[in-house]
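Practice problem 4.
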């Protein structure tokens, strides 16, 4: 189950809150590969078509790890929210992928 943070958004505002301070861009980067056994299992799944759950799980875990690293980075700066959140992925080598989660770290408080 993927976890989220209540004060993160892909938009550049949080309804009901106002940005008091901006800390700039924060990021979380994770590089992942699937084991030989995992690749074999995925090859078997691909024979039958449909969702390749082994790769789906790998991708979800990589995104969650990158997200959590980004939140850690934001927290170290004193932010309590991240706006403009985005993901990007790049294949570094065959079977090895970098997943980047980034956004703008901000401190927000409830709008009055």
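Answer key:
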């Amino acid at each position: 189950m993927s976890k989220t943070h209540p004060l993160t958004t892909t938009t550049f505002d949080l309804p009901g809150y106002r940005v008091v301070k901006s800390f700039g861009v924060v990021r979380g980067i994770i590089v992942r590969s699937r084991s030989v056994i995992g690749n074999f299992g995925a090859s078997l799944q691909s024979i039958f078509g449909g969702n390749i759950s082994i790769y789906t799980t790998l991708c979800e875990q990589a995104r969650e790890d990158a997200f959590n690293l980004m939140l850690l980075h934001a927290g170290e700066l004193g932010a309590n929210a991240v706006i403009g959140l985005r993901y990007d992925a790049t294949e570094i080598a065959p079977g090895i992928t970098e997943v980047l989660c980034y956004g703008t770290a901000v401190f927000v408080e409830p709008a009055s």
